[in-house]
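agent> Task received from the user: take the single chain below, predict its 3D structure, and emit structure tokens. No templates, no multimer pairing.
agent> Plan: (1) validate residues, (2) run structure prediction, (3) serialize to tokens, (4) report one or two observations.
agent> Step 1 OK, no nonstandard residues flagged.
tool_call: predict_structure(input=
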Amino acid sequence: MPLLPNLGLIRARPVDPAYRFLFEPEPAGEAMVVDCETTGLDRRKDDIVSIAAIPLRDNRIFTSQRFVATIRPGAQMNPAAIKVHGLREADVRGGHTMGDVLPRLLPFLGSRPLVGYYLEFDIAMLNKHVRTLLGFRLPNRCIEISELYYERKYSHAPPQTEIDLTFAAMLKDLKLPLIDQHDAYSDALMTAIAFITLRDLKARGSRIPRERSGEFGTW
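)
tool_result: status=success, residues=219
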């Protein structure tokens, strides 16, 4: 199920008129794929080091209109995170702060639904800065593609079925190429392609085959 904004927090204080566009109706047929790389996985202590957003209109991906930024984080880089995304302290030292980036990012996102893979974490990291700037969380509707993938493959699976929701497994099932992962733009692009593919499968009523447990064949 798509994640919904916390309306109680949104009403906590008056909306800055400069950001009322966030509450406009969703543009028909549009969405925005979002991906963040971070200093680590602790939502309270870690911070964003890079962000990418790619607009979608109907079944088209507009990479030429993408938003990509390297961020100078307010937290120390975790060595384990460096191994994942390859960004070192020296690589992000010259980046912008989130305070600089948000006034450009938020108009780019607008009121479009946000699409991502395990998007809840990325949005939580963004919301730490959005709350500081505006006093509320992003009000955008969120669409989690691992849920779309689960629905197409596992929604009718028997109770003992082994479920694999990894990004690599999803791309393999969708017959999509696995390009460099853990770069914000590359991850956002792969997510965009997967989202359009999953949405097409649902529109056609097609399901992703599953291997039967302990025997040959697929369901």
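agent> Step 4: summary for the user.
The longest helix spans residues 184-204.
agent> Done.
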